[in-house]
Amino acid sequence: MAAALVNLGPDATPDDLHALLAAHDYLPRQRPTPRQTGLLLDWAARLRPLFDEVDLDRQVDLVNELLAESAARPYVSRHHGRAPHLHVADERRPLEERLRAYTAAGLATALCQDATRLGSCARDGCAVVFVDGSRNGRRRFCSTRCANRVYVADHRRRRAAEEDRTRSPAESV
């Protein structure tokens, strides 16, 4: 959810946020308001550095700052016919408070399990972040599409360089 929130971008609308929440099976009592959306987009901007940072000590400092700010009291909940499950914030609290606690706790968990799994796309110009759930943990791109763009560009660059090297002096005149 933290990665998806960051990927919404600064121009997201309350409807965009509602769609994201629904896609993550997060069922708020009410649709997000413009104010809540703005607060959560500001929060997302603070989450972003965790995906770009490679220094583990800095990542730990960042996530601890987020956890301190979103300080919540975990408790067990049962709602919507679900089995008991852990919440990191009281479901009666405002949406922005609950999502801050949820995303901070989720990022803390990911960081503690394997900090190298938080990443951002390696394609120049792509700002998408992700949590690497692959088996080998070596994901570099947000999607196959971005990976293919980079690989095709690299192939074309190598091919052009090879053609330049093999071209005879008479051909280059």
What's the helix and strand layout?
Layout: H1 2-8, H2 14-23, H3 34-52, H4 56-69, E1 75-77, E2 85-87, H5 95-114, E3 118-120, E4 129-131, H6 144-166
Antiparallel strand pairs: 1-2, 3-4
Describe this structure in words.
- This is CGNR zinc finger.
- It comes from Actinoalloteichus hoggarensis.
- There is one protein chain.
- This protein is 54% helix and 7% strand.
- With 173 residues, it is mostly helical.
- A two-stranded antiparallel sheet has the order 1-2. A two-stranded antiparallel ribbon has the order 3-4.
- Strand 1 and strand 2 form a beta hairpin.
- Helix 3 packs antiparallel against helix 4 and helix 3 runs parallel beside helix 5.
- It is elongated and about 75 Å long.
- The model has no long low-confidence stretch (mean pLDDT 91).
**Annotated CATH architecture:** Orthogonal Bundle
Q: How large is the radius of gyration?
A: 21 Å
Q: End-to-end distance, in Å?
A: 58 Å
Give me the strand/helix succession: HHHHEEHEEH
Major beta-sheet overview: 2 strands, antiparallel
Count of all domains: 1
Spans of at least 5 consecutive residues whose pLDDT stays below 50 are none
Number of strands: 4
How many individual helices?
Answer: 6
Q: Structural class of the secondary elements?
A: mainly alpha
- What's the shape? elongated
CATH class: Mainly Alpha
Domain Zinc finger CGNR: 117-159
Protein name: CGNR zinc finger
Organism: Actinoalloteichus hoggarensis
InterPro entries: ABATE, ABATE_dom_sf, Znf_CGNR
